[in-house]
Amino acid sequence: MASVKQFQVTFDCNNPERVARFWCEVLGYVVPQPPPGFASWDEFDRSLPPERQGSAFACVDPSGVGPRLFFQRVPEGKVVKNRLHLDVRVGTGLVGDERLAALEAEAERLTALGARRVRLLRADGFNESCLVMQDVEDNEFCLD
Fold this sequence. Notes:
By secondary structure, the chain is an alpha/beta fold. Helix content is 24%, strand content 24%.
């Protein structure tokens, strides 16, 4: 039987630090300590060749349970819908109006951080309601 491996989720983006800091706020993640020998990530970044500066950033779950999120700069912009997205679980165990209220409250908080509301998918007898959002670089995610 194969063992479970750790994994990270990688985002292609234009501004890695901006997107990473957004997701830190969404998930309660933190920016990890800079590499040994550097007092800050800015200091580390300045040590890189100019073409590599600002090209990557990461955030981690402070409890160590969730996956590391890695953000890498790519030259092309987002063109089509994500094939993979994160579901931010804010309504687990809630149904009906109580669930909708939890989704709406979180959507309001995230909109203030730069997210954009896309559409509400109402409960259909099979799935509970969820709210499709986009992060600061238009990557889709759901409030679930």
